[in-house]
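Recall the central idea of this unit: under ordinary conditions, the amino acid sequence of a chain determines the structure it adopts. In this exercise we apply that idea directly, starting from the sequence alone.
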Amino acid sequence: MKELKKALDICLKGKAADKALVRFKAQIKKWRLPMPPVPPLVLDFGLGEFDKTGLIEYWIANEGRAGYCGKYLFVFDGQTCPMHRHKTKHETFFIVQGRVRMCSGARNWIMKPGDVFPVPRWTYHSFTGRGPALLLEVSTPCEVDDNYFENRAIPIGGNYRRAWRR
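Accordingly, the structure predicted from this sequence is:
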C-alpha cells in the first residue's frame, strides 16, 4: 500500500487527468475489456507533457512479501513511457491490445498482441504507442524509487531521490 500511495502522490491530477481518463475509458470500452476495480494512475513523469510522455497504469497487485506485481499499462498513439531501468525489478511485458515500438539497448522493434518481452534488471527500456496500446506487466514488486530515468529532468525515482539527498 505504501508504494501505491507514493505512486498516487505523483499522478497527474485535475482536468488534464480527467480528460485523459475519458479518452482511455472510451478506448477500453471499444476493446470491450474490463479493468480492475483500483484507482488508475495518470502519469506524466513530472514533465507536464502527458500526450507526449506519459501513460495510464492500473496496479492489479503489488505483493512485496509474495514477490510479484501485475499492472496494466496503457499508452495513447505516439505517447512514450520514457527510457528507464530498475536496479531490483525484473519485468515481463505482454501486449494485450494495439502495438508498441519497444526500445531496449540498441534494439527497436514493433510488438503486437500476444508478443512477450522480458526485461532483466538494470536494462534500459521504453515503449511508444503505435496507436493506442494496452500492455500487461508482470514483475517483481514495484518500488517507485527503483525507477532510474535516462532523462534527468524527470523529478521522480531513484535519480531524483539521490540528487535530493545531496
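The radius of gyration is 15 Å.
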